[in-house]
Design brief:
Largest sheet: 6 strands, mixed
Structural class: alpha/beta
Order of helices and strands: HEHEHHEEHHEHEH
Strand order of the largest sheet: 3-4-2-5-1-6
Low-confidence stretches: 11-17
Mean pLDDT: 86
Number of strands: 6
Shape: globular
Distance between the termini: 21 Å
Strand content: 5-15%
């Protein structure tokens, strides 16, 4: 069954099992599925907007090079607009790419440049934890109550970064045979 934004806000904030179940200041949620067209972006944008409307401070990280989550929020990332790619490229901090899209809702936008990150990071040391490290400062400053990560439809380095940075994972799924096959993989 689907959880509403109200359900998500009211759940206790606990860290990962095995770490003493302590309260954390920020919840980080990756919305991922290796299959395209299952509603990852729609889920991410609506969850982020619903949480912001409920009074939470939310940052939506668009990790899909198509940039549709950014476009949903009215942010067109081209030209000199800083994007999440600049964080992976080491040119900007996470705070340097976020922008206010709606009241209490920030976005770290993406554009097609992000597709290059998959190739550029292939030999980078600790490439799978770059996003987690970028979010560590934000996590300690308690700037956001929630960080929602809209992942691309693949299990590449961008999705792996989201999974290492997330404490929770939502997997939108269509109730079809092949969708279940993809989930099991």
């Amino acid at each position: 069954s689907g959880a509403s934004a109200t359900d998500i806000v009211s759940r206790p904030r606990m860290d990962r099992p095995g770490s003493g179940f302590r309260e954390v200041a920020m919840r980080s949620i990756a919305v991922m599925n290796q299959k395209g067209g299952v509603g990852k972006t729609t889920t991410s944008v609506n969850l982020a907007a619903g949480l912001a409307k409920a009074g939470q401070r939310v940052c939506l990280i668009d990790l899909d090079p198509q940039g549709h989550a950014s476009l949903h929020l009215g942010v067109e990332a081209f030209g000199q607009t800083p994007t999440i790619y600049d964080v992976f490229a080491g040119r900007k901090t996470f705070e340097g790419v976020t922008q206010l899209a709606l009241e209490r809702l920030w976005v770290a936008p993406a554009n097609l440049d992000l597709a290059a990150a998959e190739l550029e990071l292939v030999d980078a040391p600790d490439r799978e934890v770059m996003l987690r490290r970028a979010l560590d400062g934000v996590r300690h400053e308690a700037k956001f109550d929630y960080v929602i990560m809209d992942c691309p439809p693949s299990l590449g380095v961008l999705t792996i970064n989201a999974l290492t940075a997330a404490r929770e994972v939502f997997i939108p799924l269509q109730p079809h045979f092949f969708a279940l096959q993809g989930l099991s993989k």
